[in-house]
Amino acid sequence: MPNTDILFRPFETPADAAAQTPRTRRFRHPVFSWLGLRPIFAQHTAAEHAALLRWAAGRRQIVEIGVAEGASACALREAMPRDGTLTLIDPFHLTRFRSLNSLQRAAHSAVARFGSSRVTWLQEFSHHAVKNWTAHIDLLFIDGDHNESAVRQDWTDWSRFVAPDGLVMFHDARAFENGWPTPDYGPVRVVNDLFRSERTDGWRIVDEVDSLVVIKRAA
């Protein structure tokens, strides 16, 4: 499916604003994405989307923590093998009307339109979901709670399941020109502490695209 169905971050730059239709600018609530009245709002850039597609190729067991409207999950599912499993973890708790939960519905609708791998939804916080997790992971995408302690906990809880040669991807983890992350962002601080100082044995940075940092486990 073409990426015209996804509006990439940032939304507020002059060039991006010029590309939006009046309908897109007006219909920002996720219910309008669910109803198909506007594109999926991504929380990542077009360059990051391309990186997600590239790194997900050939990875059969992928876990994403933090789904939002599902744009990054769309990329992962589009690129991964058809016989793979994409596990999506998000409590979808920030909603006024739990019976409607338009963000959850928007995400489910979006992901269903891309790729054909199996999708497993875990509607709970990542620190709860990990208690029952036993499978290996080929690619782990951490994009949930951005508080430093929460990012560090996601790394501690989930990285042990990543297979040799597997990947962990951190979003919003790198300051870049005209970008939004600052040095005090939780993901930035965690990545700098764990990987730029080379204090985490067996892992190394293999790619950096805008705010996205890709870490690979040794074979």
Task: Give an overview of the whole structure.
It is a single chain. This protein is α/β, with parallel strands linked by helices and 219 residues long. It has one domain (48-217): Rossmann fold (3-Layer(aba) Sandwich), CATH 3.40.50.150. It has helices at residues 14-19, 22-26, 30-34, 46-56, 71-79, 102-112, 126-129, 148-158, 186-196; strands spanning 6-7, 40-41, 61-65, 85-89, 118-122, 137-142, 162-170, 203-209, 212-217. The strands form 2 sheets. Strands 5-4-3-6-7-9-8 form a 7-stranded mixed beta sheet, with helices on both faces. The longest helix is centred in the first third of the chain and has 11 residues, at 46-56.
String of helices and strands: EHHHEHEHEHEHEHEHEE
Estimated radius of gyration: 17 Å
Helix content: 25-40%
Number of strands: 9
- The CATH architecture assignment turns out to be 3-Layer(aba) Sandwich
Shape: globular
Largest sheet: 7 strands, mixed
Strand order of the largest sheet: 5-4-3-6-7-9-8
Count structural domains.
1
Strand pairing plus helix content: what structural class?
Answer: alpha/beta
How is the CATH topology named?
Rossmann fold
Terminal-residue CA separation: 34 Å
Superfamily (CATH H level) name: Vaccinia Virus protein VP39
**Overall CATH class:** Alpha Beta
Provide the low-confidence segments as ranges: none
Strand content: 15-25%
**Averaged pLDDT, please?**
87
Treating each run of at least 4 consecutive H or I residues as one helix, how many helices?
Answer: 9
